[in-house]
Amino acid sequence: MWLGRDNELGDVFGDFFGFGQSRQTRDNRQGQDIEAVIEINLAETLAGHEKEISLRKLIHCDRCQGLGAEPGSRAKECFSCRGQGQVQQVRRTFLGSFTTVVTCPECKGEGTKPEKPCQVCGGEGRLKGLEKTRIFIPAGIDNNQVIRVENKGEAGKRGAKNGDLYIRILIKKHPVFERKGDDLFTVLSVAFAKMVLGGKVEMTDLSGHKIVLAIPTGAEPNKLLRLSGKGIPHFRGRDWGSLYVKLSVKIPKKITSNQKDLLEKLANENL
Prior knowledge:
The protein has three helices and 15 strands. The N and C termini lie far apart (101 Å). The relative contact order is 0.16. It has a four-stranded mixed beta sheet with strand order 10-11-15-14. It is mostly beta strands. A hairpin with a 2-residue loop joins strand 10 and strand 11 (183-191).
């Protein structure tokens, strides 16, 4: 008995002083935000480019153009709330009668209703469908970075605002190059004679172009060479990272008899 009276008091004073159920209303017609994943190659981070994806989501109804009403008809004002989306509710308690404002149950707070609901979407103005969207991926984007595309989420109800689309980028592992920040790292096998005498060797960078690498005389295994500006472009910036090349000695599995004789002579020279 007293428990019921206490609950009633809480409701009454909550409504009266404003710490009960919020009187604020939100537009429940707005479309939901959605998330999708796009997987790209490491080389695709070198330049900005577009990708087209297909998403199954709530899209605008073609028949009613997203308005929810049959073509030729219109939306009419809700007779219960007179277009306000809210109605007054009178509550009677042992302290007297109290008036509160609640969401209109007839129009669900929208203030209008279709005069003739669309036969395809049932008056929603939206329905499940497949939609193609082109996404621009900026240069220098990193793994797990998220791109926000406004207005490309699920369609809003009866012409309300669409949600947003969030694209999470996943970058595939590269067989040759490893990314750390905006720098690239790789290992290059160099012939023993070239490591000792020095010289120039060719290698292919991430973009597929040939570059010439200068090997210093007497280079030791695991020596790290830096090529400035040959890494990944800074995200939405002008500068580039560096390419770091770690040298390793190339050990041939098969050698000719002449090469064997030369190596034996070098061994006798303690080289």
